Amino acid sequence: xxxxxxxxxxxxxxxxxxxxxxxxxxxxxxxxxxxxxxxxxxxxxxxxxxxxxxxxxxxxxxxxxxxxxxxxxxxxxxxxxxxxxxxxxxxxxxxxxxxxxxxxxxxxxxxxxxxxxxxxxxxxxxxxxxxxxxxxxxxxxxxxxxxxxxxxxxxxxxxxxxxxxxxxxxxxx
Length: 173
Known about the structure:
49% of the residues lie in helices and 21% in strands. By secondary structure, the chain is of the alpha+beta class. The chain folds into two domains: 2-88; 102-171. The protein has a six-stranded antiparallel β-barrel with strand order 1-2-3-6-5-4. The longest helix is centred in the first third of the chain and has 47 residues, at 2-48. It is rod-shaped and about 100 Å long. It starts with a helix and ends with a strand.
C-alpha cells in the first residue's frame, strides 16, 4: 500500500511539475511574442511616421518607452533612418525648420526706433530685431510685453499681450 501511495505521489508530482513547466514555457513564449510584437509595432509606427513626424517628436517617443531594450531599439531604428530622412527632405529644409518652430513667442520690447518711411524697428529683450511691414500705428513703449505669432506664407504678426491690433513684421536679426 505504501508503495502504491509513493507511486501515486510521484506521478502526481511529475504531472504537476510538467504542467508547471508547460505553463512557464507558454508564459515565456507569450512574453517574447508580446515583446517582439510591441517592438515591431513601435518600429513600424516610427518608420511610417518618419516623413510626417519631426525628428524631435520621434526622439521624444523613443524617450518615453520604459523598457531599456525597446528604447534602445527605437533609437537604433531612428539613427538608421537619418540618411533616408536626409534624402527625403532634400530641398525642403526650410519647411522642416518651420514645422519644428513654435507658433508664437512672447517677449518684452527693449526699444522702438523709427526706420525708413516711418516704419518702426522693434528690438526685443531676447535680442531679436523686427521691422514693421505695414503702416499701422504702434502704441507700445519700451518694457511692454508683446507676442510675435506666425502667419500664412512665412509672415509674422506682432501684438500686445493685452490684445489689440496686430501689425505685420519681418525679422531683421
